[in-house]
Automatic annotation (TrEMBL):
Subcellular location: Endoplasmic reticulum membrane
Chief localization: endoplasmic reticulum
UniProt pathway annotation: Lipid metabolism; Phospholipid metabolism; phosphatidylcholine biosynthesis
Top-level lineage group: Eukaryota
UniProt organism field: Tychaedon coryphoeus
Transmembrane helix found in the keyword field: yes
Protein name: Phosphatidylethanolamine N-methyltransferase
One GO term describing the cellular component: endoplasmic reticulum membrane
Pfam families the record matches: PEMT
PROSITE patterns found in the cross-reference section: SAM_PEMT_PEM2
Entries under InterPro entries matching the protein: PEMT/MFAP, Phopholipid_MeTrfase
Annotated keywords: Endoplasmic reticulum, Lipid biosynthesis, Lipid metabolism, Membrane, Methyltransferase, Mitochondrion, Phospholipid biosynthesis, Phospholipid metabolism, S-adenosyl-L-methionine, Transferase, Transmembrane, Transmembrane helix
Gene: Pemt
Biological process terms in GO annotation: methylation; phosphatidylcholine biosynthetic process
């Protein structure tokens, strides 16, 4: 049997009807949906490549839009955490530094993924017909599938712990679910 007491206590700290929380959850779910739909549309129609004059220019433009959307998502996530109560027992040095360490590992995965893939590899260049010479198998891909997704999830988890935020933990679960669905869709 599963003890749901911890989950009940967690939900006691989170107002899921709060506008900021809803906006954060929607922005989290929207991002991977947006980039996957646009990338598949581009792959089928080549419309963005035609509008921008080349696949590379179109890919860079989509990448810039994705980066802006990620900044919006992170801002909404942070504002939702700040508007909700902290978990007093977690508002301590141990939790803060644990969150900092988890965020650091996540950042390592995200940055090393970007360096291994490059801009067009990171931002869906394959849908634009910009293919890499071979599959990337170096770190962090040598130890983890989809390290950018799980690194990003770790950053949000760490950020939530650093702020002792039950709302942040719940939103991190939304991030993990959204990325899990994105992986299934992309696969």
């Amino acid at each position: 049997q599963v003890d749901v007491a911890a989950m009940v206590r967690l939900f006691g700290y989170v107002d899921v009807t709060d506008t900021g929380f809803i906006v954060a959850a929607l922005s989290i779910a929207f991002n991977p949906l947006f980039w996957n739909v646009v990338a598949r549309w581009e792959h089928k129609t080549r419309a963005l490549s035609q509008v921008f004059g080349s696949p590379r220019a179109a890919c860079y433009c989509l990448g810039a839009v994705i980066l802006v959307l990620n900044c919006v998502r992170s801002h909404c996530f942070t504002e939702a955490m700040k508007s909700q109560p902290k978990l007093e027992g977690w508002d301590c040095h141990w939790t803060y530094y644990s969150g900092l360490a988890i965020s650091a590992v996540g950042t390592l995965f995200v940055i090393s993924s970007f360096l291994a893939l490059g801009f067009t590899g990171t931002f869906l260049g394959d849908y634009f017909g910009i293919l890499m010479e071979e599959k990337v198998t170096s770190f962090p891909f040598s130890i983890l599938d989809n390290p950018m997704y799980w690194g990003s999830t770790a950053i949000y988890l760490g950020w939530s712990l650093m702020h002792a935020s039950p709302a942040g933990l719940l939103l991190t679960a939304v991030v993990a679910i959204s990325y899990t669905i994105a992986v299934l869709y992309e696969g």
